[in-house]
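Objective 1b. Sequence-to-structure analysis of Trichome birefringence-like N-terminal domain-containing protein.
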Amino acid sequence: MRKNSNPVESAPESNNNINIIHSRILKRLSLAELCLAAVAFFLVTVLFVSRFFYSNFETPLPNSNLNPGSVDWLGSIKVASSPLPSQSFEYETLNVSSSSLSFENNEELEKEVSFLDEGGDGCDIFDGNWVWDETYPLYNSPDCPFMDGGFRCSENSRPNHQYTKWRWQPKHCNLPRFDGEKMLEKLRNKRVVFAGDSISRNQWESLLCLLSSAVSNKSSIYEVNRNPITKHSGYLIFKFDHFNCTVEYYRSPFLVLLGHPPPKSPPNVKYALKVDQMDRTANRWNQADLLILNSGRWWTYEKTLRTGCNFEEGRKMKMNMSVETAYKKSMETVVDWVNTKVNKKKTLVYFRTYSPSHFRGGSWKNGGGCHMETLPELGPLTSNEHSYVKIVSDVLSSKKRSSNLEMLNVTNMSMRRKDGHPSIYNSKGDKNKSPSHIQDCSHWCLPGVPDSWNELLYAIFLKRQLLIRT
Ligand SMILES: *[C@@H]1O[C@H](CO)[C@@H](O)[C@H](O)[C@H]1NC(C)=O
Ligand SMILES: *[C@@H]1O[C@H](CO)[C@@H](O)[C@H](O)[C@H]1NC(C)=O
Ligand SMILES: *[C@@H]1O[C@H](CO)[C@@H](O)[C@H](O)[C@H]1NC(C)=O
Ligand SMILES: *[C@@H]1O[C@H](CO)[C@@H](O)[C@H](O)[C@H]1NC(C)=O
Ligand SMILES: *[C@@H]1O[C@H](CO)[C@@H](O)[C@H](O)[C@H]1NC(C)=O
Ligand SMILES: *[C@@H]1O[C@H](CO)[C@@H](O)[C@H](O)[C@H]1NC(C)=O
């Protein structure tokens, strides 16, 4: 197994282009935030006053006869900048569709078809909103032994836990609730493989936690080589013994092959990223039953050309090839590989789209951060097209591709979750954590956003099985 031969294993993120794009987005977002805060403040005030008014006359609030479950999904939110700090307010079924916050009526929600039902097919499950759900999270990090310290935000003293309480709600259908036992039953004698960068590991650990919470005997789940989970591992294979099922992670941030440059290459070339050849470990992914790929965060000038890692195609160095062109070519290589080397009858392949980071006020290395972000973006997203999402969707739609390759389009939904990153709570460390530390605004706390990606994966996986059967 090839050890970590990548030029730079860096702190959270080292990318200029992407950070520039993101800081533009963040500027726009912060304007929207201001509006949101103003609206929230207004609502809170109105609600508080009206509650006071009603309670004086011992009259129930409108809608207060709804059963508790029906208000769950937007439950009570502690508004951080509230004039009454420790007070929590119930939004109940407030209808503020004229503002940027649009909380649908719960009865309408119940009318929505389930994604798994007949007729649920047409629903775009990636188009939706984050809703407050008191029944979340689906697991707690101290109960999950299969998680990096870097994602254990609560255990690393993150003070607010709201980030664990948001559920993804598609606009036009309902998702099934994740059922670890059911998923494990479906995965009996099967292999799930994640290949990609550290955000892949983030999602892989989320799935390990989601599945293992349905297993009482935790010692029946183990790494087959007894290796511990670290960010330096080339690959890790966890077996769920009672189900003869493995959930595996292969570290391959580019998916294509990183190796030595051909002879007679220019002297400044240290590594060659071969955009027309798959990573060496790809021959171990193509036998999987469920394969989740991603690549994107490492396709930056900083992590390639700057470090002497140049692009190679047709066994020749292409010194003039841009990072974007190289990324596009590598995606074509991946799609060709899926078309020709992956068994259509057996393997389902998902390409997870770009996972956005949220550095405000600078990049990861010059003071940028996401510290003290406590709420998602609930209003409409302003323009947020990410060029790498476009490259992936262009390649997927222009190339003839087999029907077993689908996109897990998580970019927009994750874009809303500026509250979901570890920030300074990415290690146990000292008690006096200071926001001036380098912050992790790229990975995600667990439980958190990657759980929702896996819930979507779960829904699509179940749906496909239903469709195959009928
Ligand atoms: C919410 O607003 C919509 C449109 O503005 C309206 O049709 C609906 O009756 C409202 N619902 C409630 C519960 O007030
Ligand atoms: C991804 O999902 C978003 C939200 O539904 C949608 O606007 C966008 O068009 C989708 N992108 C692709 C490439 O399908
Ligand atoms: C366990 O699963 C593997 C595939 O991952 C399969 O080849 C093997 O036959 C299974 N073993 C048993 C005992 O079913
Ligand atoms: C737990 O699982 C391990 C490995 O499969 C097994 O050896 C052990 O007997 C199990 N313990 C219990 C209490 O079932
Ligand atoms: C690369 O670009 C430079 C300047 O833009 C040009 O002079 C050179 O011929 C190009 N080389 C190749 C191999 O295309
Ligand atoms: C989601 O992102 C796409 C680009 O991938 C953009 O065109 C679209 O407007 C976004 N959708 C929403 C609902 O924000």
